[in-house]
Automatic annotation (TrEMBL):
Coiled coil spans: none
Pfam families found in the cross-reference section: HATPase_c (PF02518)
Transmembrane feature ranges: 354-372
Top-level enzyme category: transferase
Originating organism: Hymenobacter cellulosilyticus
InterPro entries in UniProt: HATPase_C_sf, HATPase_dom, His_kinase_dom, HisK_dim/P_dom, HisK_dim/P_sf, Sig_transdc_His_kin-like_C, TPR-like_helical_dom_sf, TPR_rpt
Keywords: ATP-binding, Membrane, Nucleotide-binding, Phosphoprotein, Signal, Transmembrane, Transmembrane helix
Catalytic activity: ATP + protein L-histidine = ADP + protein N-phospho-L-histidine
Position of the signal peptide: 1-27
Protein name per its UniProtKB record: histidine kinase
UniProt EC number: 2.7.13.3
Length: 656
């Protein structure tokens, strides 16, 4: 009976191994076939890792060698793709597959998986590895360590509200208490597990086995038999070889206690066959122990010798591992104590060093603080000096410009006033002369050589028209000089810049169409709807906008004349937007563009690229002066020759 009791204890330990996995126990071939078909299809690498783990789960209840093969494939792919969660899952699967053949290696794999789970705060994987490590300590008869790991896994399941995981943890704890012959505690946890599994409609084949063990130890043999038989039926429906082995061996043990050796031999053989199909060495050992005793009692002797030989082989394989593990565990605990003592000593030394470093660091911080404060004071002083210097240079530049323009104004004001009246008379007489020539040429019949006189009169008419043209240009020059000569500025008023832009774009376009009938261009407006009113001199700013829009329309018309094929579409774009401390206005075109040499001189007075008679060279110079001097802003230009030009006005955001 003592030998039988040892077999039962081993069987309980083995159940803890199997029940310790949170993987589902559904090992039916349709599910496995479905997973294999899915693995044959194209999948992302991360999905394929988890798929291999799922296939390993299915094989774990059928054949541990196949479960090992798929877990190794999952591990290799996870490490290749640096999929940390998948690596942790694969390590756990590989440990479960190796647990029967190599306890030490299995423990290393579970601990490595646990470290990954803790580093990445993966609570589910932590619980799974805590349970797996607990099973190994139960194998080693370390009650305190085994139950400690089980209860840690249970607490994580409760924290996650994962009731299916809690079913497994409760059943494991119940089987551990049964192993230590604490039947009442075993019954309490198995009944909790069974009630929760019934509510969740999850499998109960392992729990039924555990309840059968409790009933058998309490002497409730009929009830124990019913639990075992229900576990056998449910395990067969699930295709679960391991749980079938447990239930068969439990029922065989029950019949042996009753002296019904034929029934005991029958069910023990079924249990041995199920374990051999699965590669479950501990299951083979437990069934062989029962069969050896049964055949020794009943005969024949050769059958008893056969199973005793198998029993000894299994003991050498399994219990030899456990002895090695116990020695490793003792050495490991001794190393832990030594490491803890060394760590405590190092911590004490480090603490004193830390106190000294803190004092030194405090002194350094005070010194650094003083240096930083001094540096900041110097920086502020330097910044103030730089700002003052910049303001001084700006004021100096503006003063020089104003002096230049004042001198120019004084020089040109008198000339302009003197020239206005004569030029007005020249223009008037030129217009009257043109009208008289038209009357003479059209109404009077000449008695002399009419052809010669007409040519003379036509030449006279052309000369008079040239006088008128140059007179108009002189008037434009005088007007521009008068604008430059103006001193002071009008008061600024809050102005709707979008409306001002719209109005001057419309005026410029109308003037271009009046001057060149048939000319058309696409006008695009990108005006910020939330632009605030800005304090400006509206007439002056309007003059700038009108000049820029006129120049843009001139540029696109010039390119249109150069590209008469019709593929070119003239376009002018005006936009406005609010910046952090300013308002920006852009006037752009897709015209002929401006070369780099011209851009360098474009804001100089009297510089123009237009033909003689079409421009004075004062428009952009006056515009630059209005923006920079009159409004404290900036006028700049961006252009690429042959692609277009954009003038950019930046005005300080001064609202009224």
């Amino acid at each position: 009976m003592y030998s039988c009791f040892r077999c039962l204890r081993t069987l309980l330990l083995l159940f803890l191994l199997v029940a310790g996995s949170s993987r589902p126990a559904f090992g039916q071939s349709p599910a496995l076939d479905s997973l294999r078909r899915l693995a044959a299809q194209p999948q992302p690498d991360t999905s394929r890792v988890l798929l291999f783990c799922a296939i390993s789960d299915q094989y774990w209840v059928l054949r541990t060698d196949s479960a090992e093969a798929y877990s190794r494939r999952a591990l290799a792919l996870a490490r290749q793709t640096r999929y940390v969660h998948g690596e942790g899952e694969a390590l756990n699967r590989l440990g479960a597959a190796l647990r029967e053949r190599n306890l030490a290696r299995a423990l290393e794999l579970f601990q490595e998986s646990l470290q990954l789970a803790e580093a990445h705060h993966d609570l589910r994987l932590q619980a799974q590895n805590l349970r797996s490590i607990g099973i190994i300590y139960v194998y080693l008869r370390d009650r305190q360590q085994g139950l400690s790991y089980y209860f840690q896994a249970l607490r994580i399941g409760e924290k996650l509200h994962d009731e299916r995981r809690m079913v497994i943890e409760l059943s494991n704890i119940g089987l551990a208490y049964d192993l230590y012959n604490q039947v009442d505690s075993a019954s309490y946890y198995q009944e909790r597990a069974y009630a929760l599994a019934q509510r969740l409609h999850s499998p109960t084949n392992y729990i039924l086995y555990g309840l059968g063990q409790v009933a058998r130890k309490r002497g409730q043999l009929a009830q124990a038999r019913r639990y075992y038989q229900r576990s056998i039926v449910e395990s067969a429906a699930l295709g679960h070889q391991r749980s079938s082995n447990f239930a068969y061996v439990g029922l065989a043990t029950l019949y042996q206690q009753q002296g019904r050796l034929d029934s005991s031999i029958y069910y023990a053989r079924l249990g041995s066959q199920a374990a051999q199909r699965n590669g479950f060495l501990r299951g083979v050992l437990n069934a062989s122990a029962l069969l050896t005793q049964d055949f020794k009692t009943r005969g024949p002797a050769d059958s008893a010798l056969k199973y005793q030989t198998l029993l000894l082989a299994m003991k050498d394989t399994l219990f030899g591992q456990e002895k090695v593990m116990r020695l490793q565990n003792i050495n490991y605990q001794a190393r832990q104590r030594e490491q803890k003592a060394a760590a405590d000593q190092a911590a004490l030394v480090a603490r004193y060093r830390t106190y000294g470093l803190i004092g030194l660091l405090a002194g350094l911080l005070v010194l650094v603080g003083l240096l930083v404060r001094h540096y900041r004071v110097q920086q502020r002083a330097n910044a103030a000096l730089q700002a003052s210097l910049a303001e001084l240079k700006t004021a100096q530049f503006q003063l020089v410009q104003r002096e230049k323009m004042a001198f120019l104004g004084e020089l040109t004001a008198g000339v302009a006033h003197e020239l206005q009246n004569p030029l007005s008379f020249v223009k008037k007489f030129a217009e009257v002369s043109t009208d008289l020539v038209d009357e003479i040429n059209g109404a009077q019949r000449l008695a002399r050589d009419g052809q010669l006189e007409r040519e003379i009169l036509d030449g006279l008419k052309q000369n008079i028209m040239n006088i008128s043209t140059h007179g108009q240009r002189a008037t434009a020059i005088i007007k521009g000089m008068l604008e430059h000569a103006r001193t002071g500025s009008a008061p600024r008023e809050a102005t709707d810049l979008n409306s001002l832009i719209e109005e001057n774009l419309r005026l410029a376009y109308q003037a271009a169409q009046n001057q060149h009938p048939g000319f058309e261009a696409t006008l695009t407006r990108q005006l910020a709807p939330t632009l605030p009113a800005v304090a400006v001199v509206a007439p002056d700013l309007g003059r700038v906008l009108l000049n820029l829009c006129t120049n843009a329309l001139y540029a696109v018309r010039q390119r249109q004349e150069q590209e008469p094929s019709g593929r070119y579409a003239p376009a002018v774009t005006v936009s406005s937007q609010q910046l952090a401390t300013a308002v920006e206005i852009r006037v752009g075109d897709n015209g002929v563009g401006i070369s780099a040499d011209v851009r360098a001189k474009i804001f100089q007075p009297f510089f123009t690229t237009k033909p003689v008679g079409e421009g004075t060279g004062l428009g952009l110079s006056l515009s630059h002066d209005i923006i920079s001097t009159g409004h404290g802003g900036q006028l700049s230009v961006e252009s690429r020759e042959g692609e277009g030009t954009t003038f950019i006005i930046t005005l300080p955001l001064t609202t009224v």
